[in-house]
Amino acid sequence: MTTAAAAIADPKRYHHGDLRRALLEAAMVIIERDGPGALTLRAVAREAGVSPAAPYHHFKDKGELLYAVAKEGFHRLKQAMATVTGALNTHAMGVAYVEFAHANPALYRVMYDCARSMDGLPDSGGHDEGGLKMLRENIKSAAGGKISDIDLELTVIAAWCAAHGLAEISTFPEFQPLKDALGGERAFLRAVFEHLGYSEPVCTTSPNGV
């Protein structure tokens, strides 16, 4: 019997075909339902319907599992933002970012808790293949290519920070009257992004970086 086969405790419950994917999905269920503190390799095995030994076939410890969950979270964030990139609309990308954070609050927290201890955002294939890359290309296109590398990076950072900050504070109750006046949550989010001005980058250097 192979190691993977031996790890499966109950074949009647296990139908995934991809053990690693099943464990990641189970981990995200636990994180959102019970909070990150409830995540253990044993709990993930129980949620996925496999033996306690099964997670160790793919993750050496809880930390490695959390990293994988964070990486998957950033990949899903990228997918959420990708749904609006066709229109080259930076404001819509920001709204998609905030809505993802609100729909997955515990996962979102794990994503950034892990990112703080890493060299970059743990996105699928490296952070430059994810949401940051899309945002960068969007802003560069909006500027007609007439923006230096430094100004582009500063604008990307400003936009990303704005989305992250709004995700953190937009649920505060004091904003509810303004949301009502504007026509709801999404209208409020979009209006905030429209007032930030980062869709029209401030150029401090020439396109050649001079």
Write the layout of secondary structure elements.
Blueprint: H1 3-7, H2 19-34, H3 41-48, H4 62-82, H5 90-103, H6 105-115, H7 131-142, H8 149-169, H9 176-182, H10 185-194
Helix pairs in contact: 2-3, 4-5, 4-6, 5-8, 5-10, 7-8, 9-10
What does this structure look like?
The protein is mainly alpha-helical. The protein has helices at 3-7, 19-34, 41-48, 62-82, 90-103, 105-115, 131-142, 149-169, 176-182, 185-194. The model is unreliable at 1-16 and 124-128 (pLDDT under 50).
Question: Termini distance?
Answer: 65 Å
For the secondary structure, the number of strands is 0
Radius of gyration: 20 Å
Main beta-sheet strand count, sense and barrel state: none
Q: How much helical structure, as a percent, in the residues?
A: 55-70%
Low-confidence stretches: 1-16, 124-128
Give the SSE string: HHHHHHHHHH
Provide key terms for this protein.
210 residues; 10 helices
Outline of this structure?
This protein is mostly helical.
